[in-house]
């Protein structure tokens, strides 16, 4: 069981939202579909509405009413409190804000030393550094309120350089254990490792700076088809759980899956796709098909 997972907690919240409306009035099919699309993921439309309408979950009747009389609430369980207390020990949590909850009588579910991470570089960012934390929060504020920043950073040659950047979003690399700032600006528009930033402050004269050319980086995607045998669909969706994706039903047991990813994750996505062997067939784009063929040829040549 996973607690507070982006994937699983969305399902529970979606069901709660459906029942909250059904308590007020009978739900029409289109309203049920709209709630699921709003609160859950793209592929959820394949599972949640049928589970309601066919009464597999026995929460909605065929006429759209519910046997539940009160709006559902979701109080924290002891297990959830233990989970929250455990993840509050992760220094990355405190980059966003200092935890506002405290459960003095609750033991954490696990400790940081209980986690063994492999296949990760050891020179990750120092999340305990107060300067790093202050820079991180200012960047978050700039992204939210859309204002430029003046930064001083150490470039790849070890020199200190000054730049003006218009923050667009932050991304985290699990393999590198680093945060990166993606932005655009009149003289700079690319990726900045937060660990290289020495100082960061709002630009003193934002009106005198042109936005320049906006960052053209866009998520990439791969499209593949699968036949849902031996729970293939479930395994694929779980395997790509932390990627944005879309699932379409093509036939009785045939599905088309689209997975969106960043350029930096392309090699990892290729490896994950290949791990399913003949269960899935990549159909687009040609660039990704070429990567699959190249990888297979390299594997074949190693065996000769």
Number of DSSP strand runs: 9
- The number of distinct structural domains comes to 3
CATH topology of the largest domain: Alpha-Beta Plaits
Order of helices and strands: HHHHHHEEEEEEHEEHEH
Shape: globular
Instruction: Supply the CATH class of the largest domain.
Output: Alpha Beta
Number of helices: 9
Helix-residue proportion: 25-40%
What CATH architecture label of the largest domain applies? 2-Layer Sandwich
- Strand proportion, as a percent range, falls in 15-25%
Low-confidence stretches: 210-216
Q: Radius of gyration, rounded?
A: 24 Å
Distance N terminus to C terminus?
43 Å
| Rounded average pLDDT | 83
Largest beta-sheet characterization:
5 strands, antiparallel
Order of strands, main sheet, comes to 4-3-2-1-5
Structural class: alpha+beta
């Amino acid at each position: 069981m996973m607690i507070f997972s982006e994937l699983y907690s969305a399902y529970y919240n979606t069901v709660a939202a459906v029942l909250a409306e059904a308590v007020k009035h009978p739900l029409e099919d289109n309203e049920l579909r709209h709630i699921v699309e709003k609160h859950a993921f793209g592929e959820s439309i394949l599972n949640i509405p049928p589970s309601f309408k066919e009464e597999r979950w026995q929460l909605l009747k065929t006429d759209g009413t519910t046997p539940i009389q009160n709006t559902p609430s979701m109080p924290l369980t002891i297990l959830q409190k233990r989970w929250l207390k455990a993840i509050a020990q992760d220094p990355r949590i405190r980059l966003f804000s200092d935890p506002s909850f405290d459960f003095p009588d609750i033991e954490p579910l696990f400790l940081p030393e209980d986690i063994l991470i492999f296949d990760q570089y050891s020179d990750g960012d120092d999340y305990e550094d107060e300067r790093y934390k202050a820079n991180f929060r200012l960047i978050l504020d700039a992204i939210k309120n859309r204002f430029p920043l003046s930064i001083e950073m150490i470039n790849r040659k070890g020199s200190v350089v000054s730049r003006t950047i218009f923050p667009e979003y932050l991304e985290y690399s699990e393999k590198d254990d680093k945060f990166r700032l993606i932005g655009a600006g009149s003289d700079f528009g690319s990726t900045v490792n937060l660990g290289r930033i020495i100082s960061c402050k709002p630009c003193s004269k934002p009106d005198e700076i042109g936005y320049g050319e906006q960052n053209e980086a866009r998520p990439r995607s791969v499209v593949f088809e699968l036949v849902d045998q031996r729970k293939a669909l479930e395994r694929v969706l779980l395997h790509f759980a932390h990627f944005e994706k879309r699932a379409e039903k093509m036939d009785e047991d045939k599905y088309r899956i689209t997975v969106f990813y960043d350029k930096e994750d392309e090699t990892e996505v290729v490896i994950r796709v290949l791990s399913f062997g003949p269960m899935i067939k990549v159909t687009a784009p040609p660039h990704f098909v070429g990567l699959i063929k190249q990888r297979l040829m390299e594997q074949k040549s190693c065996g000769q």
